[in-house]
């Protein structure tokens, strides 16, 4: 249920990098918490902005949720279907719930990724692409 009626802005400066326990050189900033998702009226467990230091690794694991991982900076190796393969910024991984996976930094500088954790279930309504409704130009401002 949507409880807020205003856009909330989280600036990068206000989000601290926190070390993720049980992994190697993995830091994260939580972009969206489960509570914030509830306030928006959406189903999401968390969205994380993650950074892997040189030699860092999200050790092999699995979740009770689906995960979408989008690499935004650097080079990584992904443990994908039991095999390590190299990927780079711009690549996206769709990981079903219960599937073992791991991401390791494979470059000379930190890598970064956005990880979206979404609940799964059997009685979930079918998804569809979102609709957009344009409003009058009263809010627009010319930027030059």
Rg is 18 Å
User: What is the CATH superfamily?
Assistant: Jelly Rolls
* Shape assignment: globular
Structure summary, number of beta strands: 9
The largest sheet, given as strand count, sense and whether it forms a barrel, is: 9 strands, antiparallel
Portion in strands: 35-45%
- CATH hierarchy, class: Mainly Beta
- CATH architectural designation: Sandwich
Multimerization state:
single chain
Separation of termini?
39 Å
Would you identify the regions where 5 or more consecutive residues have pLDDT less than 50? Answer: none
Order of helices and strands: EEHEEEEEEE
The CATH topology turns out to be Jelly Rolls
Number of helices: 1
Domain tally:
1
The helix content is under 10%
Notes on the protein architecture:
There is one protein chain. The chain is mostly beta strands and 144 residues long. It has one domain (18-121): Jelly Rolls, CATH 2.60.120. It has 1 helix and 9 strands. It has one helix spanning 34-40; strands spanning 18-19, 24-32, 46-61, 66-73, 75-80, 83-88, 92-95, 101-105, 111-118. Strands 1, 2, 3, 4, 5, 6, 7, 8 and 9 form a 9-stranded antiparallel β-sheet that branches. It is globular and about 50 Å long. The mean pLDDT is 92.
Q: What can be said about this structure in brief?
A:
The protein is built from 1 helix and 9 strands. The protein is mostly beta strands and 144 residues long.
């Amino acid at each position: 249920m949507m409880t807020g009626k205003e856009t909330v802005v989280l600036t990068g400066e206000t989000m601290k990098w926190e070390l993720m326990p049980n992994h190697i050189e993995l830091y994260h900033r939580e972009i969206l918490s489960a509570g914030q998702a509830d306030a928006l009226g959406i189903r999401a467990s968390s969205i994380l902005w993650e950074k892997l230091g040189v030699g860092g690794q999200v050790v092999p694991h699995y979740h009770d949720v689906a995960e979408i991982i989008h690499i935004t900076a650097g080079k990584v190796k992904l443990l994908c279907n039991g095999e390590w393969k190299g990927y780079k910024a711009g690549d996206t991984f769709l990981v079903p719930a219960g599937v073992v996976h791991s991401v390791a930094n494979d470059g000379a500088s930190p890598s970064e990724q956005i990880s979206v954790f979404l609940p799964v279930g059997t009685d979930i309504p079918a998804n569809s692409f979102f609709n957009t409704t344009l409003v009058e130009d009263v809010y627009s401002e010319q930027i030059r």
